Amino acid sequence: MTMTKAAAAAPSGPSAQIEIGNVGKVYGTAGDGAVIALDGVSLTIARGEFVSLLGPSGCGKSTLLNILAGFQPATTGRILQDGHPITGPDPSRTVVFQDYALFGWMTVQKNVEFGLKAKGVGRAERAERARALIDTVRLTGFEDKYPHEISGGMKQRAAIARALAPDPDILLMDEPFGALDAQTRVLLQEEIARISSEAGKTVVFVTHGIEEAVFLADRVVVMSPRPGRIREEVLVPLPRPRTAEMRSDPWFVSTVSELWETLKPDWQKEEEVS
Amino acid sequence: MSSPSAALARPAATTGRPLVRLPKTRGFRAFVGLGVFFLVWQLLTTTGIVDGFMLPSPIAVAEALWQMAIDGSLWVHLGASLQRVAIGYLIACVVGIALGLLCGWWRTVSDYVRPVIEALRPIPPLAWIPITILWFGLGDAASYFLVFLGAVFPAFVATYTAVRSLDRNQMNAALCLGAKPSMLLFDVLIPASLPIVLPGLRIALGIGWMCVVTAELIAAQTGLGYLIQQSRTLFQINNVVAGMVTIGLVGLAMSAALEQVERRVNAWAPSERL
Ligand SMILES: Nc1ncnc2c1ncn2[C@@H]1O[C@H](COP(=O)(O)OP(=O)(O)OP(=O)(O)O)[C@@H](O)[C@H]1O
Ligand SMILES: [Mg+2]
User: Fold this and answer.
1) What range defines the domain where residue A138 resides?
2) Containing domain of residue B61, as a range?
3) DSSP characters for B58-90?
4) Which residues on A lie below 8 Å from B179 (Cβ)?
5) pTM confidence score
6) N or C, which end of chain B has less CB nearby within 10 Å?
7) A36 CA to middle of ligand 1, Å?
């Protein structure tokens, strides 16, 4: 394998869990109204690494995440998970959605148990493991509530527990806190920082919040739109687990404002388009 | 979402003592509504505002009903109608739901089938009667067919709409959690569809009930429709109205029973709250 420029900066070798090689995605048929959502995206993600995908609206973050999840195929290029091509959804890669996508007809407990039931785990063990996960996301006491009976933040906690249940290798999160208010968002960021470092999962976290991206990730991958490309990568040297005080770390503060300066033109362009 | 506004929205009902304390159940209110309706009807006929020859009083109708209940003819006709509606409705549900699933799931099938259905749908069951008699003669089969025609379209539309409005993210969530096809069907597809499908099936039953009476007016030797028709030729206006009242009350009972089922099954769905 020849080393590309993008791969040189990223950790690779035996610890690579996801290898995205020159992936492109075109929506619609070429010619009439085809949208190039992704163009030549290459990225290698190490086992246990936390990667934030940061970029303005429409730069293809969700598209890339959906391809990683196996919900849709890439038009060109290839994606390997532990050396094997990704062909469809698999419980080794679970997803947390922006709109939670909880099953409204099931209690929190049953939602969390879903992935265990799919695995064929027995009733009693299922219930016990789900309870432990509900405890991890601090939802104990709400097991028997239905999604419509709990707040947005709690829904997202439940969705995170549900995604952790099948014990995936990779956790994919698409703007999981996008629909939450600022305070809840900050609290959940800290929860995710804690849970992800405890669980030691590989995480791909899509966001357009610069602070959030830097606070959580080992590496921030910045994308730019039209066509969706990787623009730069920022390695975050802060130790994990991340804690609230790190938000005032001088490196953190200056990195966030630098990123804001470099991204401003893209963001502004996006404002004008939409 | 889970705001305290639900508690605030209810004005304090304890200030001032109401003269009469009416139970607040839906059943009680339905009873009062119907009671007032019959009372007004009775008053209109006893005061002579409406000629008793044009419209018999509720008491006269009740007497006629009682007579027919005692001599058993009411039960024979009611049983015949119920059996016909049951069979026609069941066939309509099977066909309507199957077609709805096919068209909802596969876009291509929908493109071919839906224009045909949408062209057949506006033809009222009454217009089908001549050809129904030509095909099935004056027997039960003609009634089954007319009930089927009345009920199949609402069953189809409800199922089709339900499948089309399934949440892609919920399906994707189930898939990435490792759901096999059977789990996808029984734990996701069906429960997610019921809030739309069940009201559709209730409407279908109501229309089927109307159709069976229509069919019996013309193409049967038993049933409530036949009872009305026969009483008309014998100038037994009390029996005519008694037949109508039976049809109305049975229809009311059927939709109340189905609504009860809906409220149970869809307790989690937004439209069933409050
Ligand atoms: N199913 C689709 N069909 C056609 N075009 C699509 C589809 N999904 C996305 N696109 C287009 O692809 C581009 C990338 O979309 P994508 O949803 O991946 O962006 P994003 O970075 O996730 O944006 P946001 O931050 O708003 O979620 C956009 O121009 C979008 O209009
Ligand atoms: Mg997106």
Assistant:
1) 104-167
2) 57-267
3) HHHHHHHHHHHHHHSHHHHHHHHHHHHHHHHHH
4) 114, 118
5) 0.80
6) C
7) 9
